[in-house]
Design brief:
The chain has no helices and 5 strands. The chain has strands at 2-8, 11-26, 29-40, 44-52, 55-61. The protein is mainly β. The N and C termini lie far apart (29 Å).
Amino acid sequence: TGVETISTPAGDYECFVMTEEVSAKMMLMTEKSVIKTWYAYGIGMVKQETYVDDQLESSLILDTINW
């Protein structure tokens, strides 16, 4: 969906941003969530946020890199 610079404990990265909409059906309920993920070239995923009903449900962020 765009390009953003992200600051993490492992450093700052110029990232491509992807946004996904996911629907999960369980019994009679449908839960819709939005997952926003930041990817840095040569590194991979550096940050991910999951939103359910426009509220932040979970978050992942790159902490360290071991070369």
